[in-house]
Design goal:
Thiol Ester Dehydrase, Chain A, five-stranded antiparallel β-sheet, globular, 156 residues, alpha+beta, 5 strands
Length: 156
Amino acid sequence: MTEKSYEYQVHVPESWVDHNGHMNDAEYNRAFSDAGAAWIDHLGLTETEIKSSSYTIFTLESHIVYLKEVFAGENITIQVYLYDYDAKRVHIFMNLFNEAGDRCAANEVMLMGMSTDSGRPAPFPEFLAEAVQTYYDTQDNEVELKELGRTIGIRR
């Protein structure tokens, strides 16, 4: 049995729209970043737990692909897919959908667990390692991730 992937929802405010009349590229990053943080919170690494365990998550790398415009006033949904993980990193892939269900953007991210005491990478605390494993085991692992591993370049 698989569970539906974690979903984060947000309303696009007018302040996120640029001179082209659609959501600014920086705001896609904000939406994806907020979705990733909410997902980590969903796994149990809440702000309270960050303080009590002296452990947090940093972003190592991120890549966004823009597929369709998003406009002010729209409600968007971001789904989080856990592509891979090890003792201290998670490689996630997120899809952003508009209200009509159109996929508007994709974001590939590598996150790293960090000790806030040492400021250095550290393995996940046991509760978080178990939550990551459970999330991976219960998601649909047959999802097609077309933009995964995509590189930037001009085709010749």
